[in-house]
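User: My instructor asked us to take a sequence, write out its structure as tokens, and then describe one feature of it. I'm not sure where to start. Here is the sequence I was given:
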Amino acid sequence: MKQLLEYNHYTVVVIPSPPAKVIPPKPVPAATSANEENAIVSSLPSSEFSPETFTVGVTDVAFNPINAIFGRLLKAPGGHIVTLAYWQQKETVSHDEIPYFYSL
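Assistant: Let's start with the prediction itself. The structure tokens for your sequence are:
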């Protein structure tokens, strides 16, 4: 994300975000068998796994990512226009397609 915004001549600021709040698990009811106990323990959320998150921002206060994507204002390093799927990191290559509002 940072490289894409810097390629489009924005000054990017990245700061680490605080970890998400962990909700304490509900009390586990008494299990009647070992299989039920294993099923209950495996369904509990893991509090030791907390992904590392960051807040990404640009110093241009007029920048709006929605307008930049759908207005086709951002370019990928390969020269293609940035699509929504590329921005959301669902695709590794930005496919420069004809927008839906252009008629053939």
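For the description part of your assignment, you could build on this observation: The CA atoms of residues 31 and 93 lie 50 Å apart. Try explaining in your own words what that tells you about the chain.
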